[in-house]
Amino acid sequence: MFADFIPLFVIIAIALGLALTLLAAASWIGPKRPNKIKRTPYESGMDPIGSARERYSVKFYLVAMIFIVFDVEVVFMYPWAVSFHDFIDAGLVATVGVMTVVGLFVGILTLGLVYDIKKGGLEFD
Amino acid sequence: MALASVTFFALALIAIASAVGVLIARSPIYSALSLVLNLLSVAGLYLTMNASFIGVIQILVYAGAIMVLVLFVIMLLNLDALPSPRSIGWGPILGFVLGIGLLAQLLYVMLTSFGISLEAAEPVTTAMAVENGSANTLGQILFTEYALHLQVAAILLLAATVGAVMLAQRRFA
């Protein structure tokens, strides 16, 4: 029922309201006496050199890609966890069957991880 | 259910506004952040339609993982903010109107000649939506009837992993 999700929307509204209120209060109440040092990116730190928009190594992209693959894997495992009690109630054959299906699924995806590690895709030098 | 309607219209408004934001933002980062807001509001829309599992997955996979990938691509390509747009001539506007006209025509032909009705065959009740949208129902059917399809999805994900490793590991002399 939609009514079940109302607390969720309420907590999102509270979180959003709190964040906006704090930001608004800080800019409204807080004293503003800017000077040259205060406006540097790192006050009392190092002077920044060059642009922040540097090109990143493709290695980070590889990590992100593998993260997505295993994120999707977990998504598929969630219905398995939720419906597992019903499979146990349905008997031994159903339980072994679902374990085989999920085992095969995880096994195929683990092959990808093994390939990645063997190829040194997760090594940063 | 006045509350459901209010939630729907609020979320729909946020979704449309953020989608426009994706298109008109000059900086790719602002564009990507608008896309996050858009995906979150669509997830909220799924929740108002009682599709709880798909709503959570929308946040987890799209707003979480896919957006990480999009931001990585932006960082990888080192995209800068676009220059200010030049004035749009009459050509694109005329093309847009003609395109909309053609689309309407195509839809009309498809709806009339293939007998597709815009009305649902049987009205979906709230109980049906709650039942079909739950993770339990999905699990019951995904690991029995659609077990083969699940393995095909696994092979597809494996291909994505291997492809990413292949592309990232390639040495350019």
TrEMBL record, chain A:
Top-level taxon of origin: Bacteria
Keyword Transcription: no
Catalytic activity: a quinone + NADH + 5 H(+)(in) = a quinol + NAD(+) + 4 H(+)(out)
GO molecular function, one term: NADH dehydrogenase (ubiquinone) activity
Location in or out of the cell: Cell membrane; Membrane
EC number in record: 7.1.1.-
Enzyme's top EC category: translocase
Transmembrane segments annotated in the record for this chain: 6-29, 60-80, 92-115
Gene Ontology terms: cellular component: NADH dehydrogenase complex; plasma membrane
Keywords tagged on the record: Cell membrane, Membrane, NAD, Quinone, Translocase, Transmembrane, Transmembrane helix, Transport, Ubiquinone
InterPro entries in the cross-refs: NAD(P)H_OxRDtase_bac/plastid, NADH_UbQ/plastoQ_OxRdtase_su3, NDAH_ubi_oxred_su3_sf
Membrane-protein topology: Multi-pass membrane protein
Family per record: Belongs to the complex I subunit 3 family.
Known function: NDH-1 shuttles electrons from NADH, via FMN and iron-sulfur (Fe-S) centers, to quinones in the respiratory chain. The immediate electron acceptor for the enzyme in this species is believed to be ubiquinone. Couples the redox reaction to proton translocation (for every two electrons transferred, four hydrogen ions are translocated across the cytoplasmic membrane), and thus conserves the redox energy in a proton gradient.
SUBUNIT field: NDH-1 is composed of 14 different subunits. Subunits NuoA, H, J, K, L, M, N constitute the membrane sector of the complex.
Record PANTHER family: NADH-QUINONE OXIDOREDUCTASE SUBUNIT A, NADH-UBIQUINONE OXIDOREDUCTASE CHAIN 3
Protein name per Swiss-Prot or TrEMBL: NADH-quinone oxidoreductase subunit A
TrEMBL record, chain B:
Family of the protein in this entry: Belongs to the complex I subunit 6 family.
Lipid bilayer topology: Multi-pass membrane protein
Described function: NDH-1 shuttles electrons from NADH, via FMN and iron-sulfur (Fe-S) centers, to quinones in the respiratory chain. Couples the redox reaction to proton translocation (for every two electrons transferred, four hydrogen ions are translocated across the cytoplasmic membrane), and thus conserves the redox energy in a proton gradient.
Nucleotide-binding keyword on record: no
Transmembrane segments: 29-47, 59-77, 89-111, 146-168
Record protein name field: NADH-quinone oxidoreductase subunit J
Cellular compartment(s): Cell membrane
EC number: 7.1.1.-
Enzyme class: translocase
Transmembrane helix recorded as keyword: yes
Keyword tags: Cell membrane, Membrane, NAD, Quinone, Transmembrane, Transmembrane helix
Gene3D superfamilies: NADH-ubiquinone/plastoquinone oxidoreductase chain 6, subunit NuoJ (1.20.120.1200)
Catalytic activity: a quinone + NADH + 5 H(+)(in) = a quinol + NAD(+) + 4 H(+)(out)
Example of a GO cellular component annotation carried by this entry: plasma membrane
